[in-house]
Structures are given as structure tokens and as C-alpha cells.
Write a structure and sequence with these properties.
By secondary structure, the protein is of the alpha+beta class. It has 16 helices and 31 strands. The strands form 4 sheets. A 16-stranded antiparallel beta barrel has the order 14-15-16-17-18-19-20-21-22-23-24-27-28-29-30-31. Strands 1, 2, 5, 6, 7, 8, 9 and 10 form an 8-stranded mixed β-sheet that branches. Strands 11-13-12 form a 3-stranded mixed β-sheet. A hairpin with a 5-residue loop joins strand 3 and strand 4. The radius of gyration is 31 Å and the shape is elongated.
């Protein structure tokens, strides 16, 4: 008995000794792809040259943009497919909120004015100062359609992708590199590319992930630790240059290069072959230079093809198709929300285009992510799939909620009304029901306004919306006669409006409502006598149709902005009933570098209770050569064409041709008294809004220079 036990112990000892003594399976050839922002597009050319030579790595290690391109390749995409996908990406929208504006619910869009500075305030009224400028949500969403299938197919194990993958990020809490072998690909890749201050960090477990290039930009050491026999590294880091004079852009680039020099170079000696294309004249933000960068990577790789060792590894060319075929007809057993907040379930569920107990549609799943983020409630929204059985899956949505309120500061300057400021306090998710509470104060030389809005973008799970507005304002109207200012009147008013609306495919809103206004007018009767008494009130009912799917608040390049309004006043002791109808349309289309905008505006007022109810024509965006408030009428017709195209890098030319006029009544309308105008100017987009300078004139011999800075409000 004892003898048998000794034999078994001896056998087990030898077994475990052999097991731990066996060498780990070597990775024969590893490809290391560095970060570098747009410069990393050169990796696509490298992959293309290697694939043409029939050389495939057994392992890809990537940082930042190198990780994104490496992951797409590991998921089974070809270099040409990666090139086309990234070339079609609108990077100016991916790295900003522009891509969400065209699908935001219009009831939210109508009060969303870009700010210069925003402070976030949590439920305990603690102020959260800005830690970053842009969100990584656009990055993770752009990657999602490529990675969703392969991530599910591989069970989130990066060794089971078409080519094994390692992703390097930096945990900013410790300052150390983190190497990922498994997990949610879009979330990890967004973290690996999240350059500090510019892009938001990504929360994952107890870590806060930022750009991997901060700690390990060319991670050859990761490949070495994976026992690679041969390491081919591609270094697309910007190099420190020797320049006697530095422009502002070059100064910033040189500063970043100096800070990251150690991270860029500390592992280069581990590479058996190092590819470093010479593209010093291209910055990490030059996303439009993809063709030049891909070609540079391709040509540089051609030089070392003969030096490469044999490659026995051949990835499955059908891997990507097989990954998505594995999701075909999968039934969604459960949709689970994992959130750090308390938003009510119906608020989340109403944004989904997928449902339980029906087959998963991938486009609907990705749109659901976009819809949730566009509510403005969340910092990040990530989707992943979990296998339940051969026929069913669970959909898991990881949500990171924003602090409950924001304090926004906006300002602008125009040559017509001088400086203006807007301060807004907004509760983003009142009662955790997606209700928006918006309090704002706006003031300039001509207008001061305090307003409170309570908006429910959607009532429960329906497409109905409602809003309530309370406001007080004072407006100083200059009065002109034959383009000469003769006096000015001050109009004070307060009142409320309430409406009920129907959302139309997120971009449209049809609403009906009622408005009650009380006026107190300091009128110079020698100028324009109108009605008896300086105090009166107006009650009116209205119906409105609004459509807005433009992709930018200031300078749209595509989309439509249309409105139709009908107002009917009710009879009271001071005013006879009147009605007002107005319709306007702006359509934006871009062909190549030229953006076209066609516009049409028509309005008719049955009678004139007071001049400020009339239609006004004039201003930088209204009609060339005519100043704001210079022309009024009971009827307006305005049509025109605007062209915007590059003048030089970062500066655009803006041309306008307009035709139209205002008339006192329908009988006065005559095609012969249409006014024609031309206007030309320059636009410089800036983070605080565009700088615009225009000069225009018209056939009534009125000429005017306009200047503005900042977002209009």
C-alpha cells in the first residue's frame, strides 16, 4: 500500500515538473504598431505590402491608432477594406459631437446652443471642472460595426481572433501600461486612443484608461514577453525636429514630441527590423492625408521585404464573414443595462431599436447605442454580446451617466449688437425621467431675457413630447425710416407658452400650443403710432412644424432646416384678432469641398398689432447691405443661394446672392420692386465659434460691412 502511494507521488511529481518545465509556445513573428494619431494610417500601407509578400504575423501588438488598425486587421479585415473604412470616416465629426446632432431629438436640439465653457454639477452640487475637451464615444461607435461580430465569435478572447492581438493602454491612476488580451474591444480601443485632456478617459473596472502611447508607444517589450522570435516594429511617432523658428502648431507638436520621447524610443532596440517612414511634414491631426500616409508606409515596407524571416502563419480569410454569420438569427433573450446612475428603465428602453425575444439586427443594435448617447444623459455607452446558447444571446449595455446638471457659458460679438452673453443652468435628467429643465439668462445692448424651459423630449415610451416656457424680456428696437435711424422704442414683456408635439423620426416635430404674453411699451409716438395704450396682452394658439437634421450648429455641410408656423390670436379688449403665417427652408449639400445652401423664406401677417410683430429683413445672415431691424413689413419673401469653399487651410470663402423684400400688405407686393443683393466674406472656424467678416450691397445702393465672432444665439 505504502509502495503504491510512493509510486503515485513520484509519478505526480514528475508530471508537474515536466508541465512547468515545458517551454511556452513561441510566437514566431510579431508585428508592433505604434500610435501617432493620423500618422498611424501608414500602418495600412505596411500591412498591404506585407500581405502582398505573403507574410503574416502570428501576433499583433498595438498602441492607440496602431491598436485600432491592428484590431481591424486581427478581426479579418483586409488592408484595402481598412483603408476604405477609415477614409470614409468623417474624423471632424467622430472627434466632436457633430455626428450626433443630426439624429438628436429636435425638441432637445432647439435649446442646445454651443458653449465656450461648461461646468458639470453633480446631485450634491459639487462642481466638476473640465478634464477633457472631446468624447471618445465617436471612436468606440465607429469601431463597433467592425468588432462586434469577431468579439462575440472569439468569446472576447483576443487569442481567438483571426490574428492574436494585444492592446496597450495606460492606467492614468497608476501611470503604468496595461496590456489587454481579452475584453470589450471598442471600449479598450477607445481607451488606448484617449489622448489626455483632448479625449475623455475610459472607465474600465477600477482603471481609468488613456492613450497607451503615454507610457509605451512602440510596445516591442510586450511582443518580447510573448516570446516572439522576430519583432517587426512600425514607429509612426512624431520626431523632435531642429527648427530655429516654430509656428504655434509646430510649437505644440514639438512640446508633445519632447514629452513622449522616452515612451517613443525606450523599446526600439528590441525590434529586429524597425520601419519609420519619413513624413515629418504631416501632423498627428492631419486625417485628410491618409493617401500620402498609406503610400509612405507601403513604400518603406517594400525596402525590407527581403529581410523578413519565413512566415508559416496564414489567418483564415473568411474569419470576418464567419464571425458575423455566427450572429445570424440569434434571439435576444435579455437586454441588460449596467449603469452608474438611476435613469428609469422606460427612458432607456424607448431609445432602443432592438427588443427581447426577436432576432438581433446589427444595424439596429448600433443605432441603439447612438440613440442612447444622443440623449445627452451619458458620457459613454458601450454594447457587448454574451452567448447564452447556440440560439440565443444577451445584449449588455454599459452606461456611464453624466453629472446631473451643467452650467454653460456662451458669448459672441457682432458688429450690429456688439457683445452678447448667455448663461444657462440645465438639469439633464430631472426625476431620472429624461426631463430637461433649462434656465437661461441672455443679454446684449438691445435685448435682455430670462427664460425657464421644462421639456420632456418623449412622454414615457411614446413619440409625444411636451414643453412649458416662462420668460421675461426687454428689447430695445431701433426705428428706421429710409434706412436712417430716427428713434428707438423699448418693449418689455413676460408670459408663458405650452405645447404638445409629435416627434417625427427624431429630426422633425409637429406641435400645437397656446401662448399668453403681456406687453409694456415705451413708445415714441412721433415715430410709428400703432395702438391705443402702452400696455396690452395677447393670447394666441399656434401650430408648428420643425425639421432639423443639419450636422453642425454653426457651419452645416449637409441636412435640412425647415419650419412652418401658423399663429392665431384671440380677441380681447385691446386687440382685434389677427393671424400670422411663416415658412422657411434651408437645404445644405456638399460636393467635393464646396457647400451649397439654398434658402427660401415667406411670411404673411393679416394685420399689425405692433411693429415688432412684423417680419424683419436685415443682418449678416439675412440680406446683403441691410442692417438688423432696418426693414419691416407685414409680408416677406426672401430667396437665395450661399456657397462656402476653402480659401486656404482653415479659412473659408462665403458667397451669398439674395433676392427679396418686405411689403406692408399683399396689395403692395410687386415683382418689380424686388431687391437684389450680393455678399462676400471669409469664415474662420474656431473652438469658440466662427469668425466671420462679410461685405455686401444691393440694388437699393445700401452697402454694409458685417463682422461676428462666436456661436449665434
Amino acid at each position: 500500500m505504502v509502495s503504491n502511494i510512493k509510486k503515485h507521488l513520484l509519478f505526480l511529481t514528475l508530471f508537474f515538473y515536466c508541465a512547468v518545465s515545458l517551454p511556452a509556445k513561441n510566437t514566431q513573428n510579431a508585428l508592433v504598431l505604434s500610435g501617432g494619431g493620423a500618422r498611424a494610417f501608414a500602418h495600412i500601407g505596411v500591412l498591404k505590402a506585407l500581405e502582398e509578400a505573403g507574410w503574416y504575423p502570428d501576433l499583433i501588438v498595438g498602441t492607440s491608432m496602431g491598436a485600432i488598425i491592428g484590431a481591424m486587421y486581427s478581426c479579418g479585415k483586409t488592408p484595402d477594406q481598412i483603408y476604405r473604412y477609415l477614409r470614409q470616416t468623417r474624423w471632424d465629426e467622430i472627434l466632436t459631437s457633430k455626428r450626433y446632432r443630426d439624429i438628436e431629438l429636435i425638441s432637445k436640439k432647439m435649446i442646445d446652443i454651443p458653449s465656450i465653457f461648461t461646468l458639470k454639477i453633480d446631485d450634491n452640487f459639487n462642481i466638476h471642472y473640465p478634464k477633457y475637451i472631446l468624447s471618445t464615444q465617436g471612436v468606440s461607435e465607429r469601431i463597433l460595426p467592425i468588432t462586434l461580430g469577431p468579439e462575440y465569435y472569439s468569446n472576447s478572447n483576443f487569442d481567438s481572433l483571426a490574428i492574436p492581438l494585444r492592446i496597450v493602454a495606460t492606467n492614468i491612476k497608476t501611470g503604468k501600461s496595461v496590456v489587454f488580451k481579452k475584453g470589450n474591444l471598442p471600449k479598450i480601443l477607445a481607451g488606448s486612443a484617449a489622448y489626455p485632456i483632448v479625449l475623455s478617459p475610459v472607465e474600465l473596472d477600477s482603471m481609468l484608461l488613456v492613450d497607451g502611447g503615454l507610457s509605451n508607444n512602440v510596445p516591442c517589450d510586450v511582443a518580447a514577453k510573448e516570446n516572439a522570435d522576430f519583432i517587426l516594429a512600425v514607429n509612426m511617432s512624431s520626431k523632435i525636429s531642429d527648427q530655429s523658428q516654430l509656428s504655434a502648431t509646430a510649437y505644440m507638436d514639438q512640446t508633445i514630441n519632447t514629452i513622449s520621447y522616452y515612451s517613443d524610443t525606450r523599446n526600439l532596440h528590441l525590434a529586429d527590423i524597425l520601419i519609420s517612414p519619413e513624413i515629418n511634414n504631416i501632423y498627428s491631426t492631419d486625417f485628410d492625408s491618409i493617401d500620402v500616409l498609406v503610400e509612405a508606409g507601403y513604400m518603406e515596407t517594400q525596402k525590407i521585404i527581403d529581410q523578413l524571416p519565413p512566415s508559416d502563419y496564414k489567418p483564415d480569410s473568411n474569419y470576418f464573414k464567419a464571425a458575423y454569420a455566427s450572429l445570424k438569427n440569434k434571439i435576444v433573450r435579455q437586454i441588460e443595462f449596467k449603469s452608474n446612475g438611476h435613469t428609469r428603465q422606460h427612458v432607456l428602453q424607448r431609445e432602443l431599436e432592438i427588443d427581447e425575444m426577436i432576432p438581433l439586427k446589427l444595424k439596429s443594435a448600433t443605432r441603439s447605442v447612438t440613440n442612447l448617447y444622443s440623449t445627452g444623459i451619458f458620457n459613454n455607452v458601450n454594447l457587448r454580446l454574451e452567448k447564452v446558447s447556440e440560439d440565443s444571446i444577451d445584449v449588455v449595455l454599459d452606461l456611464v451617466e453624466k453629472p446631473g446638471s451643467v452650467l454653460k457659458f456662451s458669448a459672441n460679438y457682432t458688429s450690429e449688437v456688439n457683445a452678447a452673453a448667455l448663461i444657462t443652468y440645465r438639469m439633464l435628467n430631472l426625476f431620472d425621467a429624461g426631463i430637461i429643465n433649462n434656465f437661461s439668462m441672455m443679454f446684449n445692448d438691445y435685448k435682455q431675457k430670462i427664460s425657464l424651459d421644462l421639456i420632456s423630449p418623449r412622454i414615457f415610451k411614446t413619440i409625444l413630447t411636451n414643453s412649458l416656457n416662462l420668460h421675461m424680456q426687454k428689447i430695445k428696437y431701433p426705428i428706421y425710416r429710409d434706412y436712417e435711424k430716427i428713434t428707438e422704442n423699448t418693449v418689455r414683456s413676460y408670459g408663458f407658452s405650452a405645447n404638445l408635439g409629435l416627434q417625427i423620426k427624431r429630426i422633425g416635430l409637429t406641435s400645437v400650443g397656446i401662448e399668453q404674453l403681456f406687453y409694456d411699451i415705451n413708445e415714441n409716438r412721433t415715430a410709428i403710432p400703432m395702438i391705443k395704450g402702452n400696455q396690452f396682452n395677447v393670447t394666441r394658439i399656434f401650430t408648428k412644424i420643425n425639421v432639423d437634421n443639419t450636422n453642425d450648429y454653426d457651419l452645416p455641410t449637409r441636412g435640412n432646416k425647415n419650419s412652418i408656423i401658423y399663429e392665431q390670436s384671440l380677441k380681447n379688449e385691446t386687440l382685434e384678432p389677427y393671424f400670422k403665417f411663416a415658412a422657411s427652408s434651408r437645404n445644405y449639400e456638399t460636393y467635393g469641398d464646396v457647400t451649397f445652401c439654398t434658402l427660401l423664406h415667406f411670411g404673411y401677417l393679416s394685420s399689425t398689432p405692433y411693429y415688432f410683430e412684423k417680419f424683419s429683413m436685415g443682418g449678416q445672415d439675412s440680406f446683403p447691405g441691410i442692417g438688423i431691424y432696418q426693414k419691416w413689413g407685414n409680408m416677406i419673401f426672401l430667396s437665395g443661394l450661399e456657397l462656402r469653399f476653402p480659401f486656404t487651410r482653415g479659412i473659408y470663402t462665403n458667397l451669398q446672392i439674395k433676392v427679396g423684400n418686405v411689403w406692408d400688405d399683399l396689395d403692395a407686393f410687386n415683382l418689380t420692386n424686388f431687391n437684389w443683393g450680393l455678399q462676400a466674406g471669409l469664415i474662420i472656424p474656431t473652438p469658440i465659434g466662427p469668425i466671420r467678416a462679410d461685405y455686401g450691397g444691393n440694388i437699393e445702393e445700401q452697402h454694409r460691412f458685417f463682422f461676428s465672432l462666436g456661436h449665434r444665439f
